[in-house]
Design brief:
two-stranded antiparallel sheet, Rubrerythrin, domain 2, mainly beta, three-stranded antiparallel β-sheet, 26% strand
């Protein structure tokens, strides 16, 4: 039994199940790679480099479909 399809935002890379990103209202894509979990964006160097300003799950690469 398959679960809901995880999608990634084409703008901010946030992972969600929605067709539109709840963070920035951009469209989402089913075509993404890599998985990043940010627990404390204020202390994360990766979050800083990716310009992430919110804790959550993110894709490393998103293909616009």
């Amino acid at each position: 039994m398959a679960g809901p399809v995880q999608r990634a935002c084409t703008q901010c890379n946030y992972i969600t199940e929605e067709d539109t990103c709840p963070v920035c209202n951009s469209p989402t894509s089913k075509e993404w790679e890599g998985y990043l979990v940010i627990l404390d964006y204020t202390k994360s160097e990766i979050a800083e480099k990716m310009q992430i300003t919110r804790n959550g799950r993110y894709a490393l690469r998103v293909r616009k479909s």
